[in-house]
Design a protein that fits this description.
alpha+beta; 5 strands; about 25% strand; elongated
Length: about 120
C-alpha cells in the first residue's frame, strides 16, 4: 500500500510544479474539503456548546465567544459571555445590536452554525 503524501510534499508540488490547471483543481478541492469539515463541525453543535464566532459578517462579530442557547435550522442564538458582550457594546461600528450598559450577557440571534467554532 503506498504511503500517503505529506503536507510538505503537497506544498512542494504546489510551489514548484503545479500548473494553472492544477491550481484551479486544488482550489476547488480545498473548497470542497472546507465545506465537508464545516458540515462535520456543524453537526456536532448542540445547545450548551461553547463557541467562538468566526468568518462572519459584520466582521466585528468575529472572535466573540459564548454558549449556544438555541438552534433554529442552520442558525443559532449565541449567548455571549461577559467579555464578548462588553466588546460588542463598545464596538464603534456596531449600530445593529443595542447592548444595554448593565447587561453582562447578550443573546446574539441568527448566527450561522457554519460560523460557530467549538472551543
Amino acid at each position: 500500500m503506498p504511503t500517503p503524501p505529506t503536507l510538505a510534499v503537497a506544498t512542494d508540488f504546489i510551489l514548484s510544479h503545479a500548473t494553472e490547471q492544477d491550481l484551479t483543481h486544488i482550489t476547488e478541492t480545498v473548497k470542497q474539503r472546507r465545506a465537508a469539515l464545516a458540515a462535520i463541525r456543524t453537526a456536532s453543535l448542540t445547545t450548551g456548546t461553547l463557541v467562538r464566532i468566526a468568518n462572519i459578517k459584520p466582521r466585528y462579530l468575529d472572535g466573540l465567544t459564548g454558549t449556544i442557547g438555541r438552534i433554529d435550522g442552520t442558525h443559532a442564538m449565541v449567548i455571549l459571555d461577559a467579555g464578548s458582550t462588553d466588546r460588542l457594546r463598545s464596538t464603534p461600528s456596531n449600530r445593529r445590536f443595542v447592548v444595554p450598559f448593565k447587561e453582562t450577557t447578550y443573546d446574539l440571534d441568527g448566527v450561522p452554525l457554519s460560523c460557530c467554532v467549538p472551543t
